[in-house]
């Protein structure tokens, strides 16, 4: 594991040499794992960011999966403290998360092999990720980001219209899109929102969810590969899983959350020798001793309703089978 400064130098070096590599970071980008593809062992890391490895599906093979989230009574006071900070003007949006004990008959390998997701990663017997959210892509001289904010049960009547017209969801998404636009402006020119609030569908082992994303694009400096790590780490932590303004909101998160996020909500990525593709490490299961924990959460604004936020926290505890 490398420190932030060591990782930046290593990524800059590998990118300058056009050497393909994979990496992942913790939440704040202070602990980083980087390895060239030629040195990669499946025992250390299994990954699929392109969907080339088709999920293993056997409709006759059953499994168990249960979750034991904190109670609503435990959730409410933490939610209230975050809303209080927002009402004081210390933040506009706080991404509040919790870890939930889960029990399943599946191993981390089983989950990795069966999952359908844009970004799949399994690190030894420590954690597995199956994330639907892109962080940034750097391709052909441009940087693209796809912040994902807004989740709703697809079975709800007029679910698409409800989430797109919900004032709280709209405010949350606008805030994050603006934050990401400002973040990209640190490393790129001509930054603008090219697609605003489009819907994607996620299938889970329990239900279908609708999620709302936007696309933001900027023009990178001419010879950006030798400073790929330098540019990338200026954007951390990821805005979609912190909030705005970012520095103060990170302080609120650290005060409100009663656990260490670790690598949850960090980023993972693959450089193919020319282009970079990275994802936000949400939809995250971590093994601590003999216990599995699923880490999940959502964005809190002054418009937030405690019951709805609590339900979103639970809805995001799923397997994408």
How are the SSEs ordered, and which strands pair?
Blueprint: E1 2-3, H1 4-16, E2 21-25, E3 31-36, E4 45-48, E5 65-67, H2 72-87, E6 93-104, H3 108-114, E7 119-123, E8 127-131, E9 134-139, E10 142-145, E11 148-153, H4 159-165, H5 167-184, E12 189-203, E13 208-219, H6 228-233, E14 243-244, H7 246-256, E15 267-271, E16 276-280, E17 284-288, E18 291-300, H8 306-315
Antiparallel strand pairs: 1-3, 2-3, 2-15, 4-7, 5-6, 6-14, 6-18, 7-8, 8-17, 9-10, 9-16, 10-13, 11-13, 12-13, 15-16, 17-18
What are the defining features of this structure?
321 residues; 8 helices; alpha+beta; 27% helix; 35% strand; single chain; 10-stranded antiparallel β-sheet
Descriptive report:
The protein has 321 residues and is of the alpha+beta class. The protein has eight helices and 18 strands. It has helices spanning 4-16, 72-87, 108-114, 159-165, 167-184, 228-233, 246-256, 306-315; strands at residues 2-3, 21-25, 31-36, 45-48, 65-67, 93-104, 119-123, 127-131, 134-139, 142-145, 148-153, 189-203, 208-219, 243-244, 267-271, 276-280, 284-288, 291-300. The strands form two sheets. Strands 1, 2, 3, 9, 10, 11, 12, 13, 15 and 16 form a ten-stranded antiparallel sheet that branches. Strands 4, 5, 6, 7, 8, 14, 17 and 18 form an eight-stranded antiparallel sheet that branches. A hairpin with a 4-residue loop joins strand 12 and strand 13. The longest helix is centred in the middle third of the chain and has 18 residues, at 167-184. The chain is globular. It starts with a strand and ends in a 6-residue tail after the last helix.
